[in-house]
Amino acid sequence: MPEVAFYVLVSEDEQQRLLFVCKLVEKAYRSGSFCYVRTDTDTQAQKLDDLLWTFRRGSFIPHQLYTGADPSFENVILIGSSEPPLPWQKVIVNVSIQFPEHMDQAERILEIVDDTPEIKSAGRQRYRRYQQLGLTPVTHKV
User: Fold this and answer.
1) In this model, does residue 36 exceed pLDDT 90?
2) Contact 114, 97 (CB under 8 A)
3) Residue 17: pLDDT band by 50, 70, 90 thresholds?
4) Rounded CA separation 35/77 (Å)
5) What is the pLDDT of residues 116-126, one digit of tens each?
6) Of 78, 94, 87, whose CA–CA distance to 127 is shortest?
7) Cα distance between residue 54 and residue 60, in whole Å
8) Residue 104, pLDDT score
9) pLDDT at residue 112 above 90?
10) Which CATH architecture has domain 3-141?
11) Distance CA 100, CA 31 (A)
12) Residue 76 has pLDDT above 90, yes or no
């Protein structure tokens, strides 16, 4: 069963939420994890893709949008609005309001929640669902 961590931001600003995701992805990449960032829409995935190029001066995180085809490289961060391909299921950064259905291979799931009513409510539902599955999510207030 995976470790589940919720990162709860006090802001309702989507840009702040995506910047936090970039920092978290950078930390995962530097520790050797090639995670999958799951978004709600392709537009949100594109915003995150663009932001990963510019969020920190001098930072380089190899990444690409996942469109259902195998990525060009194995050691890359994938970003997409669908379920992750098998090799990228170990670490999932969930920016989506949806529960990650295919978590059989997951070692860690990082849930990013902000103070927007819809996102907060969906986060609470996912938290309860993890508990129903016998998992004990850890919460970090950011």
Assistant:
1) yes
2) no
3) very high
4) 5
5) 999 999 999 99
6) 94
7) 9
8) 79
9) yes
10) 3-Layer(aba) Sandwich (3.40)
11) 23
12) yes
Q: Which long-range contacts (CB under 8 A, 24 or more apart) does 72-79 make?
A: 74/34, 75/34, 76/34, 77/25, 77/28, 77/29, 77/34, 77/35, 77/36, 77/37, 77/52, 78/34, 78/35, 78/36, 78/37, 79/36, 79/37, 79/39, 79/45, 79/48, 79/49, 79/52
Both tokens assigned to 71:
């990525």
Alpha-carbon distance 95 to 83, whole Å? Answer: 12
**CA 19 – CA 48 distance, rounded (Å):** 8
Q: Indicate the pLDDT class of residue 102, thresholds 50, 70 and 90.
A: confident
Retrieve residue 65's tokens: 């949008």
pTM higher than 0.85: yes
Angle between helices 42-54 and 14-30 (to 10 degrees): 60
Assess contact for 29 and 59: CB atoms under 8 A. no
Please enumerate in sequence order all residues whose Cβ is within 8 A of that of 26, keeping only pairs 6 or more positions apart, or say none. 56, 59, 61
Strands 91-94 and 36-38: parallel
